[in-house]
Amino acid sequence: MWCLGRAQAHDRGLLHHTARPCIEGVDIRADGFHRLGVLFDEQAAQLVGTVDDLGERVRKNDEYTLTSIGSVTKNTRIKDQDDVTLSADAMVKELRDDNKTLHKRLGEVKEAAEEAGDNATSGVVDDWIDECEERIWFLNQTSK
Questions:
Q1: What percent of the chain has pLDDT over 90?
Q2: Would you give the DSSP letter of residue 63?
């Protein structure tokens, strides 16, 4: 079960690092620059806030978390985005799609937690699913 949780934690971390460059390393040239910058920053902060929580759940279940960038790369389903020429619209759509991938992964983690009788993890994952659904909704609305 926890191989899902460990890899999922790093999907969240990678998604955070995908969101952050949208405001730090990429020149967003659009009418909604400030609005997008605030949105990306809020979403990145939310993702970072849950990575530690997930690591604690993994350790409370006497498992190990991933320990290196290489292990993160090997276990993630979210690909790095290094293209600094992406348009603002393309960034929003990619972040939305990455959040959809994370949402699916969270469902898998919840199912595995329930099968293992880990009610605490199952409950926490409910909150993360709700946050992920909100991010997807915001990104969908932003891309219209």
A1: 35
A2: -
| Domain at 2-142, CATH homologous superfamily | Ferritin, core subunit, four-helix bundle (1.20.1260.10)
CA 119 to chain CA centroid, Å, is 22
pTM for this predicted structure: 0.75
CB-based burial of residue 103 (10 Å sphere; 0-12 exposed, 13-18 middle, 19+ buried)?
A: middle
* Rounded Cα distance, 5 and 27, in Å: 34
The answer, yes or no, to whether residue 144 has pLDDT greater than 60, is: yes
Residue 2 has pLDDT above 80, yes or no: no
Report domain extents, the chain. 2-142
User: CA of 91: how far to CAs of 3, 40, 60, 68, in Å?
Assistant: 29, 10, 36, 26
